[in-house]
Amino acid sequence: MVVLADIEKAGARIAGHIIRTPVIWSPTVSAMTGAQVWFKLETLQKAGSFKVRGAANRILAAGDTVKSKGVVAASAGNHAQGVAVAAHVAGVPAVIIMPEWVAISKLEAARGYGAEVILHGKTLEESIARAESLAAEGRLFIHPFDDGEVIAGQGTIGLEILADLPETDLIVVPVGGGGLIAGIATAAKTLRPGISIVGVQAAACPSAEESLRQGRPAPVRAGRTIADGIRVAETGTLTFPAIRDLVESIVVASEDEIADAMLLLLERKHIVAEGAGAAPLAALMNGSIEISPGSTVVLVISGGNVDSAMLFRIVRQSMARQGRILRFSVLLDDQPGTLARLLGIIAEKRGNILHIHHTLGESNVPVQMARVHLELETRGRDHIQAIKKAVADAGYEVKLG
User: Fold this and answer.
1) What is the pTM for the complete model shown?
2) CA–CA distance, 139 with 51 (Å, rounded to integer)
3) Average pLDDT in the chain
4) Multiple choice CATH, 51-142, 3.40.50.1100, 3.10.110.10, 3.40.50.720, 3.40.190.10
């Protein structure tokens, strides 16, 4: 079992190989919750996530024994990049097994850091099994979470949080296999016994929640989620005891809540967070975490490796859900000036046009008319209603969507 001394050794071992990431205060979220809310920004870590900590500690602890055959790991993305970076710094060859559904950006990033990438498996567990078979050939297998040295490396985040904010009352941590929360909880609870640790999972894959319910690591069906970094179907056997004994609760966040948290981080703090990294904020905002007014709360924003195209879709859908994007179409006479008249009405109501598409010849549209599809940025639901009313009052039939 990992103890504080192991984490302190890991901290000394990896100090020259990682970035000591900052803890920053969020006035916006603090005002929303009544607590003093801080973000631990592992988005600024090497390779864009906390994973390099555990990987570096595992490789450096092994010493020269891995120089010839190298290391092998399995990951949906961040662990792959962490291992690739740590192995490159240590001058060790790395092979990474990634599941078939992995984001292209994370696959290419692992390759860019110098690792050999093999796609195998429909689940992370199948990828891990493949990696373990390669480890039998002599490579050092670096488990993404169920390894003492990996847990100790991740636990260095807990040391840093309490060094920067010794008065911390609550740390909120995303949970997949449990390596991150096990390490942080071990460090934090030893240094500050009264501190609370809460884990957050995607509702689509609540493996730790189910494990606590059954009293043992228990598999769940891993649904699709934008928080792919915590899409782990079964909690680790080494991480489960720490979760059971040191963590106050495991809560979940929905896909929409995680997406909204990503948008909030982006707009209010200019932080690009992946789904797993935004999960702690999602849980804080959905009310599933009980916090005391004025208490000091630290959210571990664990990574920022989100595919650009995916981020674009998430932001637009979140804005639409919040009533900040309006999509509608109207029929216009196919004559000069009719489109300008419509746009004038929208401009008068201060709607910002994002996209406009003018179509002719649709089967259900009269020959002498055209359908115009518009997408507007708005200030909220009241603004949407005002725009819709103005367009309808001008004689247009508004078709939403």
Assistant:
1) 0.89
2) 20
3) 94
4) 3.40.50.1100
